[in-house]
Please model this.
Amino acid sequence: MSALFFWSQMTILAQEEITLSHPVKESIINVNTGMLLVRTGKELYGISPTNRSIQWKNESLGKVSFKSYHEIPFTPLVVFENKPTVNSKLLSNTVNTKGISRIMVNVVNGKVLFNSEGIGFKSVNRTLLIPERKAVLIDGVMDNELAVALYSYEGQKMLWRTNLTHSTFFKNLKGTLFEKEKVLLDKKQNVFWLRNNYLLKMDGPSGKILYEKEQVASIAIDNSRAVIYLFSNAKQGEKLKRTTDVMAYSVGTMAPLWKNPAKIQGAITEVVFDGNKLIAISSTGFNILDDKGTKQWEEMESLPFIKKIVPVNEGFLVAQEKFLSLIGKKGKRVWKKPVKISLSNTETPIYFIKEDSTVIYITPSRANKVRIENGSKIWDDIILNDADFISRNLKLKLPTYSIWYDSIAKQYPIYSNNTFYVVNGSSTSTPKPLYSFDFGRTLPDLRMGTYGYFLENDNNFFLFDTLGKLKYKKAYPSNEEPSFFREAYYYVKRGLGTYRAATSFVYNQAIESVAGTLASGELGFLTDFGSSVYGSYRLIQNPKQIIANLNELGFSSGLETVFERIQKGKKGEDYTLVITPKADETKDIIRLHIPTGKEERLKQLDNEDSFVIDQVENIVYTFNKKIVTIENL
Model:
C-alpha cells in the first residue's frame, strides 16, 4: 500500500459528511454538551460530536434566531427569546400588546420543553425553572389577563393558572416599570411571590392564593425552606433612625413564630443565612438574628453602603464605602481606624482571601495584605488602577479586571489595566507588576496548569511560570471570525450574575447553590454566585456529589453529557488551537502545545469557508449549502 493511498484512506476515515434538507443559515456549538446546532430556516438540527450524525431534527424550531440563544449553565437546556421592537416589563404587563416570548429546548434530544406562545402566553416577564417539579413558573399575559402559571415540561401540560388582573396584586403593578420582585419556594413547592411590596402565597399543586400581605419590603426563606421571614418597609423618620420590622412565619400556616418582630436599623438591602442565623444587611449596617428573633447586638455600628462581609474568628470583616473594618462579636469596631481599600465608594467586585491571621483584599483600584488583629498593612499598596481609570469604567457592565484562583500553587493571578500580577498569601514582600500588555479595554483569557499561566488575547499568547516569569510569547495575525469555541464556560468567567441578567430565565434557590459550588470550586474561577455581600467566594464540592444533587433536581436527561464534556476538556488542557489568517486569503488552523510553545499545522481553510471549531472534541465543522463536513483535527 502506497503512503499516498494510506494517507487518503486516513483522511476519508477522519472526515464525514452530513446532508441536510435545506441550506445552512446559522450554526452554533452548545458549549455545555458539545452538540452542534444548525438552523436551515425550515428546521433546527442537533448533530452529535460523538457519533458524527444527526441526533435530532425539529421543524418547529426552524425560525428561531441564534441572536436570541442563551444557554442555561451546567444543563443541556437552552432558551430562545423573542423580544418586540420596544422591549420592557411595562409593555409585557400591557394585556393588549404582544411582548416577550420564550422557548426552552433540551439540546441532547431536541425536545421543546416549554414554548410560552405555544401554551397561550401573549407575553412573559419571569420564567422560573423549578426542576424539583420538572416545571416552569411563568408570569405574563394570557387571554388578555395578567396570569401566573405552572407548566410541566415533563408532562407537557399546564398544572395550574391563576389570573391576577382584578386582584390587588395587579393593581399594585400598574404604572410600575422597575418594580421590586422576588420569587421563593418552600419545602412543599408553594410559591411566595413578592412584587412591588405586595406578597402572594400560592398553593404549589393548584395555584390557589393562600395568603396576601401588603407593605412587605422583602422576603427570605431559611435553608430548610420551613420558615419565611417578612420585612416591613422602613419606617419614616430621621435617616439614621429608620427601622425595619422582621418577623418569622411558618411556611405551612403563616403563623408568626416570634412574640414580637425584631427591629433592624435602616432599610434592608440583603438577607443571608449562616446556619440557623439570619444576617440582615441594611442601609446603615448589619445585625444577626437567631432562630428566636434575638439580635446579636442591640445597637449597630453605623456602616452605610456595605459591599462585603466576611466572618472570621475575631468577628466580621466589613467593606463599606472605601474602607475595611473589623467588627467584633459584640458589634463594635475593633481597629483604631478603618483601612482604606479603594478609591471609590462604588467599586465592585471586592475579593477577600483569608490566610491564617491575615486577609488579602483585592478591589478594582487597590490590593494589600493586612493583619486581622489590628488592621495594619503588611505590604505596600498594590496600585491596580488610578482614580481616572476607575471613574471612566464604573458604568461598564463587564468587570475591568480579572482574578483567578490557582488551587495547586494556592495563589491568585490578577489581570488589571493591562498589567499582570501573581499574589501569594504567604509572601512577606509586596507583589510587583510582572508584565505589561497592550490589550486596551479587553480582558485576556487565562488557562492554568502545571505549566503555569497561559494568557491569550486576539491571537497573542503569553506563558508565565507560577512565579510570574515569562517563558515565551507568540503573536499571530488577528482572527475576527466568531467561529471558535475554545472555552465552554464563558458565563463563569464573566460572572453568572451578568449572564443571568441577560437571559431573564432564572433558577430557583436549590440549583443556584449547586451551580455556584461547581463554578467557584471545580472550574477555578472566582465568580459572583450566591450572596454578593456575605461570605467568601471559595467553595469546594466533589463533582460526583454535584452530579447526584443535580440528578435529584430532575436534570438527569443529558446531564452526564455535560460532565463528560467537562472532563474531556480537562484532558486537553496542554493544547490550544489557533486560527491565523494568511496573505493568500486562506486561514491556517494550528495546534499549540502550551508547555513548550511547539506548533503543529493541522489544516488550511479558504477565507470564504463557513466553519466552527470545537476544541474540546478537536473537530472542525465546515458548511457548504446543505452539506456539513465533520473533520478531526
